[in-house]
Amino acid sequence: MLRVDIITIFPEYFREAFDYGIVRRARAAGLVEIKAHNLRGWTRDKHSMVDDRPFGGGDGMVLKPEPIFAAVESLTGAQGRESVPNGTRVALLSPQGRVLTQSLAAELAQCSRLILICGRYEGVDERVAEALVTDEVSIGDYVLSGGEPAALVLIDTIVRLLPGALGSETSAANDSFVAGLLDCPQYTRPQEFRGMRVPDILLTGNHAEIAGWRRAAARKKTRRNRPDLLKK
Ligand code: 6GU
Q1: CA 52, 133, 72, 18: dihedral to nearest 10 degrees?
Q2: In this structure, are strands 113-118 and 88-99 parallel, antiparallel, or unpaired?
Q3: Are 162 and 109 in contact (CB under 8 A)?
Q4: Which of the residues 36, 65, 165, 195 could staple to 14 if both were Cys, CB 3.0 to 4.6 A apart?
Q5: How crowded is residue 175: how many other Cβ atoms within 10 Å of its Cβ?
């Protein structure tokens, strides 16, 4: 069982987020438990301040360290990176992180406890990244207003990798990126739609030829949409 705790200033953002599809099934099957916590609950001042102005000047507000350290301590017992229990990862979601890949998702899917800290785009006090977290993760080279959508993306990629999360007939082994290529194109009925025909070979029942066509089609699609994947 994987337990995921999200630390956020917008816990309501996640209200229905995990009630659909594979994530819903995985929760129902007891493979994962996900809870969103309000960072404000760990403030101690009378105005429940989670952010403050940046030292040195500049636009926007920066998330303060005290409530974030208090949140992680109350959830894990750890006062810093060194005391985080075995099997637990504490990840800060920020555009300054390591870019999420399928292999990082597979690594995170091995742990038993995941704490996700949602940053705001203006920033999070750097002492969180320096001393508290085990991982700093970005979901790509573009800017989000906050880490909340990134937390959804990360949880989805991880949950579908948990043993038993996908139906017995499906497997994550053939997904895009696992073999370093995009997935091959798929077709379903009708055989002809608005003059566009399904490739004849897929209708032959010749499994060896179909497998060969799929490999070639995956390479062609990868060359067109993601040539960077072929250059490694
Ligand atoms: Cl994790 N947070 C924000 N604010 N922007 C991002 C991101 C995360 N990943 C990509 N862009």
Answers
A1: 100
A2: parallel
A3: yes
A4: 36
A5: 15
Q: Where are the alpha helices (DSSP H) in the chain?
A: 21-28, 65-76, 102-108, 126-131, 148-159, 207-225, 227-230
Mean pLDDT of the chain: 96
Top pLDDT among 171 and 92 is at 92
Structure tokens at 117: 């800290």
Look-up: residue for tokens 């990134």?
150
84 Cα: distance to centroid of ligand 1 (angstroms): 24
Assess whether 3 carries a catalytic annotation. Answer: no
Whether pTM > 0.85 for this model: the answer is yes
* Residue 183 pLDDT exceeds 80: yes
- What is the model's pLDDT at position 172? 80
